[in-house]
Design goal:
Oligomer: single chain
CATH architecture of the largest domain: Orthogonal Bundle
Low-confidence stretches: 99-103
Order of helices and strands: HHHHHHHHHH
Family: Belongs to the sigma-70 factor family. ECF subfamily.
Protein name: RNA polymerase sigma factor
Structural class: mainly alpha
Shape: elongated
Pfam families: Sigma70_r2, Sigma70_r4_2
Mean pLDDT: 84
CATH class of the largest domain: Mainly Alpha
Number of domains: 2
Largest sheet: none
Radius of gyration: 17 Å
Keywords: Sigma factor, Transcription, Transcription regulation
InterPro entries: RNA_pol_sigma-70-like, RNA_pol_sigma-70_dom, RNA_pol_sigma70_r2, RNA_pol_sigma70_r4_t2, RNA_pol_sigma_r2, RNA_pol_sigma_r3/r4-like, WH-like_DNA-bd_sf
Number of strands: 0
Number of helices: 10
Strand content: under 5%
CATH superfamily of the largest domain: RNA polymerase sigma factor, region 2, helix turn helix motif
Length: about 180
């Protein structure tokens, strides 16, 4: 029914068309999940966060104002929803991510052949440094945007990125 015209799909979904929304989901779930996974560093949490992204998208699709590409807006929503999700998971997060070496990575990550070596190094980063690194280096957000998403000063975002970059380089050297 909907094949190429994303604008008409978005309009139909905004009017409550579930088939149109399913089409948006199918088109965007791979990249949404990838961003969630990089931010969460855990498949189960990434799946939950991606599901939450699309629940929020259904509720907030009317907020899309067409000032940017839909995918740009959606990935910004994805980052915000995922970070909010992670903040709610703080107790788990603090327990799970006192990671120093690859041996300390959860088996689901350390043994997964689909996870690149670089991703494993990124997963070892401290929480906020990883978020900034993923958003800036991988997703291409500016530090001003990251600062707004994470509620931090632009200078803090830049410092976290610099720290993350150094830690990844050190991890690669020693790992």
């Amino acid at each position: 029914m909907y094949e190429n015209d994303e604008e008409s799909i978005i309009l139909a979904a905004q009017k409550g068309d579930r088939i149109a929304f399913k089409t948006l989901y199918e088109r965007h779930i791979p990249r949404v999940y990838a961003l969630c996974f990089r931010l969460c560093a855990d498949k189960s949490h990434a799946e939950d966060a991606a599901q939450e992204v699309f629940i929020q998208l259904w509720r907030k699709l009317d907020n899309y104002d067409r000032r940017s590409q839909f995918s740009t807006w959606l990935y910004s929503v994805t980052a915000n929803v995922t970070i909010s999700y992670l903040r709610r998971q703080k107790a788990w997060w603090q327990k799970a991510f006192s990671i120093e070496t690859e041996a300390d990575l959860p088996d689901s990550i350390a043994c997964d052949p689909d996870i690149t070596s670089l991703e494993k190094h990124i997963f070892k980063l401290p929480e906020r440094a990883r978020w900034v690194f993923v958003l800036h280096a991988i997703e291409g957000y500016r530090h001003e945007e990251i600062g707004k998403m994470l509620g931090m000063a632009v200078g803090t975002s830049k410092a976290q990125f610099h720290r993350a970059k150094q830690l990844v380089e050190e991890s690669i050297e020693h790992g």
